[in-house]
Amino acid sequence: MTPAGRTIRNQSASVKLRTLAFAAAAAVSVLALAELPFLATGAAGAFPAWAAILAAGSVLTAAGLWIGLNRMGRRIDQLADAVDTVTQGRYDIEVPRVRFPLLTPLADRIRVLAQKLAATSRSERRHLEINPVTDLPRRAVLKARVEQDMAATGAQGGLIHVEIVNRKQICARYGPSIGEPLLGTIARNLTAATPVGSIENNASGQFEEVADAQPLLGHAESAAFVLHLPGFSSTDALERQAMQILAAFAEPLSIGKRRVSVEIAIGIARYTEDGNSFDEVANKAALAAAHAASPSSPDCMILYDKRLMTAISERDGLEQELRQAIAEKQIEVCYQPKVHAADWSSAGVEALVRWNHPTRGMVNPCEFIPLAEATGLIVELGMYVISRAAAQCAEWSRKGRLIGVSVNVAAGQVARPDFAEKVLEIISLNDCPPTLVTIEITETMAHTHNERFVEQLDRLRTAGLQLAIDDFGIGYSNLAHLAELQFDALKIDRSLVKGLETSSRMVEVCRAIVNLGKALGCKVVAEGVETPGQVAAASALGCDEVQGYYISAALGADEFIEWHERLDARNLANIVRDMFGEDYAPVDPDAAQPGDPEPPEVGLLKLFSGNSTEKPGPKKQATG
User: Fold this and answer.
1) What is the pLDDT of residues 560-602, one digit of tens each?
2) CA–CA distance, 424 with 430 (Å, rounded to integer)
3) Rounded Cα distance, 593 and 616, in Å
4) Residue 125 and residue 36: Cα distance in Å, rounded?
5) Which run of H or of E encompasses 338?
6) Which of 308, 417, 352 is nearest to 547 (CA)?
């Protein structure tokens, strides 16, 4: 019995005792008052008869009261049982009808309380089982239904995990208020692209027993949805369904008055091939989706298999080794030269990170840079590169070589509130001239920047550092945002530079970028040049600087100085030759002798521009 029911019963027993005592006292008092007239008149002979009648009436009155109290006590006990039932969490009860005027209000209040608690319980249960934003079942409901279907003999099917890759970026750009409308629109879009068909169809069979297993879409996590497809035993069928989901997000979604591009990653796992429980299969589908969402993955849809687990294990191992490499200074910084397009003089270097693994050898940056970004190691790695580059720039400066150094930074670095402070601290500790340091951000970062982002970069520019937009031409730039950043250099992405020799459209795109850079008052750099034709075309379009393997691969600090000295020597020879003639020019042991055929790349350079055709320094093959 609950405390509430016990209290009601105790109060009922107390009322009974008090009422019985009152009835007995009342009967005695009535008898005494009834005797007074007989005593006053002296009719003593009639007294016994009247006393007997009054005594009988008193007894009957007390008995009636006692019977009424018992009936009322039983009703009170019934109400106490109702209270017990309600306090135990069972609200769908029948509260007894009570005809006693004193108890009727109490019974009505208990009845109303039970109804309100039942409504609240149903609402809370729905909130726990159904996400109110998407109207889709949560993970617990999905799990119960899937395990019910998996328990059937010979059951086969699959789970498709859909991860919203750029939800945080969308909320950061448009504000948190877009979060719920975004999820609601995504849920409707998903149901329309699946056998579920609609939110209503999905909800109709969530809690009902059905003869045949039905597809069910659930909202598993804040940015993750899981589609259960019972009976889909074929890999091809699951992949076709996944392709339909991807097609549903090929175009931007309408969120209010906005058109928002939503990026998704899909992972697929099957039962019983990949597991015999919901948790096992769902976790493997989520792993596949996470792998598909990583920047290093070429696919946005991955079917789970054992090779994926091997790749994940290797990735985990690589992450631990990268942490160790940063701590033990296994990371190297190399420098890729840039030259001025007009006279082939040195235009500084770009600092590039390299990982010389003790057993793997040189690890490709395409392997560990995305890993560092995904795990947050990019902050520590990036600061290490900035520190090394600043120290090297300061060393060259002390030796009289004013060589500018550019350093790439990732979004995760700039997002930290102390980014600018840390960079300036590194510059100061190394006594590095700030005007020789350029911070490079990508076009995508420039497009999605916020107020703090701008404040960080403004602080660096105020201190004398320069700002460059890297990989320009492959993002979705907002020109007003770019103008606000007041950058100093714009670097044309290598994918555009690659088409300068083969595509007239690409030439016009690059020409437009050059004109944009000139209009904004910044220099334009063509990066990733690999052929003399690309160099000549970039120069003809008006690019100020060129960078790439045709100029030189990334070099160690000492190698770069050797390259720089050879470049200076050749440029000096060209100046002397132009001013005083061939007879006064120093002998170049690498120059072609009279009568030798002209190299084809030199002729191609002359065809594209009238600049010097000397190639500045030795060429090396790409090493990653």
Assistant:
1) 999 988 887 777 666 656 665 555 445 554 554 443 334 333 4
2) 10
3) 18
4) 71
5) strand 331-340
6) 352
Helix axes 3-41, 47-87, angle to 10 degrees: 170
How many residues would you count in the chain? 624
* C-beta of residue 137 within 8 angstroms of C-beta of residue 206: yes
72, 65, 81, 82: which is closest to 104 by C-alpha? 72
113: left (phi over 0), alpha (psi -120 to 50) or beta: alpha
283 with 290: CB under 8 angstroms?
A: no
Q: How far is CA 489 from CA 136, 341, 526, 575, in A?
A: 49, 14, 11, 28
pLDDT in tens, 14-57: 555 555 565 556 655 655 555 556 555 555 555 566 666 666 76
- The DSSP 8-state label assigned to residue 363 in this structure reads E
Q: Among 245, 436, 366, which residue's Cα sits nearest to residue 623? A: 366
Token pair in block for residue 154: 């010979």
* Residue 418 DSSP one-character state: T
Please tell me the pTM assigned to this model. 0.59
Where are the extended beta strands (E) located within 18-156?
130-131, 136-137
Task: Please answer whether residues 530 and 562 qualify as being in contact, where contact means their C-beta atoms are separated by less than 8 angstroms.
Answer: no
Residue of 548, 537, 415, 560 whose CA lies nearest to 491: 548
Query: Residue 343 burial (CB < 10 Å; 0-12/13-18/19+)?
Result: exposed
**Rounded Cα distance, 176 and 174, in Å:** 7
Distance CA 536, CA 603 (A): 11
What one-letter code names the amino acid at 337?
Answer: P
Question: Residue 545's beta-bridge partner residues?
Answer: 340, 525
The dihedral of CA 413, 419, 424, 430: what is its sign? negative
Please state, rounded to an integer, the average pLDDT across all residues of the chain. 79
Output DSSP code: residue 596.
S
Our CA dihedral for 370, 372, 374, 379, rounded to 10 degrees, sits at: -130
Instruction: Please list, in sequence order, all residues whose beta carbon lies within 8 angstroms of the beta carbon of residue 139, skipping any fewer than 6 positions away.
Output: 218, 219, 220, 221, 226
CB of 405 closer than 8 Å to CB of 349 = yes
Q: What is the dihedral of CA 604, 610, 616, 622, to 10 degrees?
A: -40
Q: What tokens were used for 76?
A: 């009170």
With a CB cutoff of 8 Å and minimum separation 6, the contacts of 292 are 163, 265, 266, 267, 299, 300, 301, 302
Helix, coil or strand: residue 42:
coil
Q: Which residues of 586-600 are buried (b: 16+ CB within 10 A; e: fewer)?
A: eeeeeeeeeeeeeee
Inform me whether the pLDDT recorded for 610 exceeds 50: no
Q: Is the dihedral of CA 506, 509, 510, 511 positive or negative?
A: positive
Between CA 145 and CA 151, with CA 147 as vertex, the angle to 5 degrees is: 120
In three-state secondary structure terms, 560 is helix
Burial of 440 (0-12, 13-18, 19+ CB in 10 A): buried
* Strand partners for 267: 161, 302
Residue 382 CB neighbours (<10 A):
25
> pLDDT for 459-517, tens place per residue?
999 999 999 999 888 765 566 667 677 889 999 999 999 999 888 999 999 999 999 99
Take residue 14 and report the two structure tokens written for it. Answer: 């107390």
Residue whose C-alpha is closest to residue 526's, from 488, 478, 473, 604: 473
